[in-house]
Amino acid sequence: MAQQNVKLALIDLSGTLHVDDQPTEGAVDALKRLRQHGVKVKFVTNTTKESVGSLFARLRKIGFELEREEIYGSLAAAAEYVRKNKLNPYYLLTDDARTDMPPDDPTRPKDSVVVGLAPERFCYEHLNEAFRVLRQKSDNSNVQLVAIHEGRYYKAKDGIALGPGCFVKGLEYSTGVSAVCIGKPNEYFFRSALPDGVAVEDCVMIGDDPIDDCQGAMRVGMKGYLVETGKYQPEMYTEENRPAVSGIFATFGDVVQHIIANGQ
């Protein structure tokens, strides 16, 4: 067996380990094998449709063995950003995701907009309210448009589905306010996910998004392994224009086998 080099695997969730309420092929057993090989894991996710508690319960229910503290999401990072900057946002979030965020202050005017994946909020009424918050404050340098992430699309059980990125870009276009992006592929997000004492060169990132997951991690010095079980659609690429990542694998289990066999 090759010498073990990988100490920590950062693992995406939706599209990599599961799609809605179904694990991807062999993922439950593959995660066990990775742990048995001595590789520590942390689940890094841009999921914003549900709270960390709901996500943890879903993963346990469908067979994954993990601790809630092993999940590091852009929703939690965004909540910390709101607290640190003392913002009073208008939230474009689901009701469940909203429970992870700081409460709003009815005694203060709205000074920002926070956007996550919230399909039922992406209608004219709510988007127009967000526009007005940003537009009314356009002369205030402190106004902020906070994108928990800018995902273009994601894998759902009935196929690929539109992500929040286009709504963020639409608000940027109409208001002239540039968004602050919190989650993947932000360099801060990847670095803040690492435990103390773990170097980036000892880590790999495994995900289904060639840009947000793999290339984002590669920019900070990690390997980025892409799986084909989620949003990545290999049939849309030729051999010449395939994503420039560290490796492309059919399933999460195939990545785990590669790590065990090669130590990287």
TrEMBL record:
InterPro entries: HAD-like_sf, HAD-SF_hydro_IIA, HAD_sf, LHPP/HDHD2, STAS_dom. SUPFAM superfamilies: HAD-like. It catalyses: diphosphate + H2O = 2 phosphate + H(+). Its main location: cytoplasm. Its EC number is 3.6.1.1. Gene3D superfamilies: HAD superfamily/HAD-like. One of its GO terms (molecular function) is phosphatase activity. Keywords: Cytoplasm, Hydrolase, Magnesium, Metal-binding, Nucleus. It is found in: Cytoplasm; Nucleus. Pfam families: Hydrolase_6, Hydrolase_like. One of its GO terms (cellular component) is cytoplasm. Its cofactor is Mg(2+). Residues 1-82 form the STAS domain. Phosphatase that hydrolyzes imidodiphosphate, 3-phosphohistidine and 6-phospholysine. Has broad substrate specificity and can also hydrolyze inorganic diphosphate, but with lower efficiency. Belongs to the HAD-like hydrolase superfamily. This is Haloacid dehalogenase-like hydrolase domain-containing protein 2. It comes from Anopheles culicifacies.
